Amino acid sequence: DAKTTQPTSMDCAEGRAANLPCNHSTISGNEYVYWYRQIHSQGPQYIIHGLKNNETNEMASLIITEDRKSSTLILPHATLRDTAVYYCIVSDYNQGGKLIFGQGTELSVKP
Amino acid sequence: NAGVMQNPRHLVRRRGQEARLRCSPMKGHSHVYWYRQLPEEGLKFMVYLQKENIIDESGMPKERFSAEFPKEGPSILRIQQVVRGDSAAYFCASSPLRTGPSSGNTIYFGEGSWLTVV
């Protein structure tokens, strides 16, 4: 079973920042937080991942709370092409390294 | 650097036939994962393979499904005697090291193979 909780859906205005929350209260010390997204009829696309520190790349920023029990993915200037299902995943070392996907958050970016 | 390559992208099979889906991992990646996505559902893990070894097949149906990743050539997901319920998108992913995301490595996905059973 997925170890994360995400809202089912969110809306965001085009050009505004999209902040997608994720709860992972049972995360253990060695587990990373990964974010992927899936645009309709395409393969999952890697966005970003982190362990303890906040991370930023060309796509997004990842803010992880100090206790690591939750995180937020930030898309700084959302565009219509960012409309997708966003998955927050905690890598489970005990699961042998595979990623277990939950239901994700369906983000709709509106003009 | 080419990404994860899957073929065929679309496959139509009649009930009872066999389906073979192929996956070539990214260059330098020696670990492959297969996932299935049924219509309007989420991604479900099926199997995790290393070259010539199955590491974890806990998500594979017990019958009709098999996977291999030979020393040479692509990984193959084989579905025998397909039924309508096998119609789905099958995604392959690869990572460079055995422990994959447990060590902070990233898994990259292909664009999927869409199987339709008629």
Report on this structure:
By secondary structure, chain A is mostly beta strands. Helix content of chain A is 0%, strand content 43%. Chain A has no helices and 9 strands. In chain A, the strands form 2 sheets. Chain A has a 5-stranded mixed beta sheet with strand order 1-9-8-3-4, with no helix packed on it. In chain A, strands 2-7-6-5 form a 4-stranded antiparallel beta sheet, with no helix packed on it. The model of chain A has no long low-confidence stretch (mean pLDDT 92). Chain B is built from no helices and 11 strands. Chain B has 118 residues and is mainly beta. At the A-B interface, β3 and β4 of A face β5, β9 and β10 of B.
> Class by helix and strand content of chain B?
mainly beta
Largest interface: A-B, 29 and 28 residues
Characterize the biggest β-sheet of chain B.
Answer: 7 strands, mixed
Low-confidence stretches of chain B: none
Give the H and E element order of chain B. Answer: EEEEEEEEEEE
With strands numbered from the N-terminus, the spatial order across the biggest sheet of chain A is 1-9-8-3-4
Mean pLDDT over all positions of chain A: 92
Unreliable runs of chain A: none
How would you name the oligomeric state of the polypeptide chains in this document? heterodimer
- Name the shape of chain B in a single word: globular
